[in-house]
Structures are given as C-alpha cells and as structure tokens.
Write a structure and sequence with these properties.
Blueprint: H1 21-53, H2 84-87, H3 92-95, H4 106-115, E1 124-126, E2 129-140, E3 151-159, E4 164-172, H5 184-195, H6 205-210, E5 215-219, E6 222-228, E7 235-242, H7 247-255, H8 289-292
Antiparallel strand pairs: 1-2, 2-3, 3-4, 4-7, 5-6, 6-7
C-alpha cells in the first residue's frame, strides 16, 4: 500500500500566471496619455495648479522688454525782444534837448585819482548810508606859528550802481608858488576831475582854480564851482555835480536811463602826464574839522 504522506509525493501549490512586461508598458503609456491629456487641457490650467502646489513655477513670466529711450527734448530756439525805443522815431521832447551824462563810474574815477597820485580809499558804501557809495582822501600838514595848517580833502560820492552824484574838494591854506599859483601837486586833483568826464566846455575852470580865483559855470545839467570862503580867506571849496534841472532835461534823462539802455564802456583818457608821486596820506588827528563836515 502506497504511503501518500511521503514528502516526495506532497502536492505543490499552483503557480500564478505571470503578467507579461508588455502589459505593464502599455498600461504606463495609457496612463501617461490620460494624465497628459488632463494636465494639458483647459490651457494647461491643471498643470499650472500642480506646479503651484509643489512650489514649482513651470511657466515663469517673460522678462519685460526695456522701454525704448526717451527722445531728447528739442532745444528751445533763442529769442529776444527788441525794445521799441531802438527802432521808434525819437520824440521831439527828447531829441531837442542835450543832456550831459557821466562817462565814467565812481570806482573808475577813484582809480584815476590814485593813478594821479591821490591815494583815495576804495569805492565802498558810506558808513552813514549803505545806499551811498564813496571814496575819499584827506591830508593835513603841521601847524606853523599862527597860520592854519594846510590841508586837502577830496570826496567822490555816488550810488551802488557806480553813478557819480558829485565830486568835492576842500583845500585850506594851500601852498602856492611865487606867482600865487596853486601847487602843481594839488592842481593835479582838479585836472583829473575835469579831464576824466571828458566834458570839454569848462575851458576857464582849470585856469581859475590854478590862480585861486572864484568861478562858477553851469551847462546842460552840470554845475562846477570853485569859491573862497568869505569869512575864511584861506579856505577854498570845489564842487562838480550833475543834475538835470529843466523839465526837458529830466525827460531826456529818464528816456536814456540805464534801466532801458545798455551802459556804455568806461572811456580811457590819456593824460600825457608823467607818473606823479603820491600825495601823503593823512593822519586822523591832523585832519581839521572843516574837512570832516564834507563826509556827512
């Protein structure tokens, strides 16, 4: 009798059928196609959602294109306006009146005096009024016995624009030669003041000053005077000023104001004189009171 319990005759388990590799390959391809179709559908909305879920930006936005350079602005053409006064016909009120004007500024006059040996101060604002500009020179000699000390005081006064208002000189007990004529060093002051403005109609003024004679002239808005003080015969006062007096002169002065017309250049004057030695500077304690009153 056969023994079925023998290991050699034990029943073996039935082996499962093996799925071929081709099946898995086809399944993978099919699933990939389905998933690709789903992800790529609806303008790849699902694919973008999956990438956003995993923190991956699958479709970064394109870099912005640089903006084109701005066109440079066109230069504005230069323009200017011609004042009507340049082309208009002169009016009879201004054309018929001759008006004298300063052809030299206050600073230039002070420099001309320094070139002539009169060591004036610089053209600067006056201490009593910032709107008034001036330069001055003062000198006083030593007292001799009972005579007054000889002294010289010069001042040129004007405004901040450099326009001269007046020029004044005060001399006390001036030195003279054997003919009674004024010392050339002091006369040089008057020569400079009369020569620099280039007014050539005051012919007799310089000769009268040289001989210490009183003189007073007026013409076309200018006034010049050189007089001896009545109560003090040794003291002389000189004034040169410019002031339009008549209505026609005032209209002409306003018409040709520097606010409307360009200023003329400074004239150059050739004196033809040798370079003089400087007149001594003054000491404050030697200047007479009479000369100081000119500064106020």
């Amino acid at each position: 009798m056969t023994d079925n319990s023998s290991p050699a005759y034990a029943k073996q388990p039935v082996a499962r059928p093996r799925i071929p590799v081709v099946f898995w390959l086809l399944l993978t391809i099919s699933l990939s196609l389905v998933m690709g179709t789903v992800l790529l559908s609806n303008n790849m909305k699902h694919l973008k959602t999956v990438g956003h879920y995993f923190g991956v930006d699958l479709f970064p936005p394109p870099e912005p294109k640089p903006s084109p350079p701005k066109a440079l602005p066109r230069p504005t053409p230069a323009s200017f306006t011609i004042p009507p006064r340049i082309i208009e016909t002169p009016t009879a009120q201004t054309a018929s009146t001759f008006l004298r004007t300063w052809r030299i500024s206050g600073a230039a006059m002070c420099a001309a005096l320094r070139d002539a040996g009169v060591e004036t101060s610089d053209w600067a604002a006056a201490s009593f009024n910032a709107d008034t500009f001036e330069c001055f020179y003062e000198h006083s000699g030593k007292r001799q016995k009972d005579q007054l000390p000889n002294s010289v005081f010069v001042i040129v006064r004007g405004d901040a624009a450099g326009t001269i208002n007046n020029m004044r000189v005060k001399i006390v007990n001036p030195e003279t030669d054997q003919n009674g004529q004024l010392d050339p060093g002091i006369l040089r002051i008057f020569e400079t003041m009369l020569l620099q403005p280039q007014w050539l109609d005051f012919h007799e003024a310089l000769n009268a000053i040289k001989n210490l004679k009183d003189i007073k002239e007026d013409g076309f808005g200018a006034s010049i005077s050189f007089t001896r003080e009545v109560l003090n015969p040794g003291r002389y006062n000189f004034t040169l000023s410019l002031d339009a007096a008549s209505g026609a002169q005032r209209r002409t002065r306003n018409y040709f104001s520097n606010r409307i017309w360009l200023p003329s250049p400074e004239p150059t004057v050739e004196t033809g004189l040798a370079q003089p030695e400087s007149i001594p500077k003054a000491l404050d304690n030697e200047v007479p009171v009479e000369s100081r009153e000119y500064r106020n």
